[in-house]
Amino acid sequence: MKNNTMTQPVLELLRSHRSIRKFTEQPVEESLLRDLITAGQSAATSSNLQGVSVIRVRNPETRRAMAELAGGQAYVEEAAEFLVFCADLNRSGWCCEQSGKTMADGMTEHFIIATVDVALFAQNVVVAAESEGLGICYIGALRNDPQQVSDLLALPDNVYPVFGLCLGYPDQDPECKPRLPLDAILMEEHYQPVNAERMAEYDETMRTYYQRRTGGKLDRVWSQEMSALLGKESRPHMREFLEKKGFKMR
Amino acid sequence: MKNNTMTQPVLELLRSHRSIRKFTEQPVEESLLRDLITAGQSAATSSNLQGVSVIRVRNPETRRAMAELAGGQAYVEEAAEFLVFCADLNRSGWCCEQSGKTMADGMTEHFIIATVDVALFAQNVVVAAESEGLGICYIGALRNDPQQVSDLLALPDNVYPVFGLCLGYPDQDPECKPRLPLDAILMEEHYQPVNAERMAEYDETMRTYYQRRTGGKLDRVWSQEMSALLGKESRPHMREFLEKKGFKMR
To answer: Could you tell me which CATH class the domain A7-175+233-244 is placed in?
Structure first.
């Protein structure tokens, strides 16, 4: 029912993704930006909930504050566009009110639905952007201080910032980061226990990658990185923040 | 840095998404399936965590059980391929163990990271699949009975099934579902309160859409649907299930 003419180009486009952290000053056309968001809207959404709001941030002071709270990621300030993707149950709460109902708030399930809605939407925006020659960088570090982000954007209850997205024309051309061997993550019928050999294989791939990127300076492997990352608490404020925002995880 | 030749095709491809619930018997080539998963792996992932495992289910009995627990969605049984996308922190737990650490388990933040990783990955699989003429349907209803899904797939702790995905060649050609007006979800600088007029506009769009699809039988608008959906508890077992699986939301 669809033609297959763009077969290879789309697979290649997807496979060529890498985060861009340095952008030219070329602006993104207004009409293109709207096309990208429309592409995002076309992604699947649970029961047509559309639990997504996108806030476009242009104010330089807001940008600077967000770059800082994200740990000093200058590209948040510099990218032609910076979008904050929010999981939004405020709109559905409004629908409930209109018909005299009260939203069953704080459900873990609703939290999952809205968060997944946001990610599917954003990834469509990303694919659309990259097909137009733009580069992108997701900014999960907005969750370093989600309360400040909420205050800056005047987010009401039942809305939380999932991540930001830098968009602009690339002023760098980094290589793609190698991923885990396909067979380590694609399984048949049942979950497969972690295969130590596969992990060692990937560790060596990543060691080579980091050495190439840093001219031999960085000697690091993936399993060590993960152990450093997951071996410590991460953003322990999230639970309380979400609860305060109405996402009670019940 | 990238050519723009596929500009319109990709935007059009994304905009033409609709769920497919009836498939031909044509199988999906093994090499194509692997290409799709590779495309998924290329999506952004938080700190290169790659918190995703994909389980390909072919066993007809498992398929039938999942179709049933998903509320009798026959296409789960019938589609050429059925994939279960799991948020996976078991692999990173293994990395911690290897270096004598203990994973800081149960963090809400880790839950968010892995869930978002899964959705970004899956959406890339979907875009790749649709570019190859396949149709897809996300199956969030696996969360109707996530424990049974976990048992069927032998999922260990720190792994949970986020959703399923039917893949196959379409045997139907439904129209795209209209989405909220762009200006209802794209906001400048700050969150914008719900605009009742925009909502009424969309309600009428959806009324027309449903009437057209059902030959005038269905008289329903979006805001009513949302109020019915969110006005009641949804999958209230999720919290306890996740907690038992190691996702303690702390």
So the answer is: alpha beta
